[in-house]
Amino acid sequence: MNILWEQRPVAEVLKRKGLGKETADAGDVVGAIISELGMPRTLNDVGVGREKLDDLAVKCLKDAWLRTNPVPLLEKRQVLDILEAVVGDGKSHL
Asked: Which of 13, 16, 24, 75 could form a disulfide with 28 if both were Cys (CB 3.0 to 4.6 A apart)?
């Protein structure tokens, strides 16, 4: 994370967002950058609500890239747990 703090524009954003180099973790830093860029932070932000998660989980299990995940995801419930954590409920998850 030090490399991001060494970039003046990034450091200015992080400080403006109230983050400190000694106290902010990687999630805080990435979240602040994503927010500053105006990028979506949750699935809900891109139109994916809870009603679509079941179908999305099934499709995820068929994706060839899923096999490259360092933690094996073999069951729909595993994928649903992750999707439910990022769908968004008005709170920041990044």
From this structure: 24
Given a cut of 70, the residues of the chain with pLDDT beneath it are: 88-94
Q: State both tokens at 28.
A: 């805080």
DSSP state of 68: G
pTM: predicted TM-score of the whole model, two decimal places: 0.62
What whole-number distance in Å separates Cα of residue 17 and Cα of residue 19? 6
Q: What per-residue string of b and e applies to 76-90 under the rule 16 or more CB within 10 Å gives b? A: eebbbeebeeebbee
Distance CA 26, CA 94 (A): 10
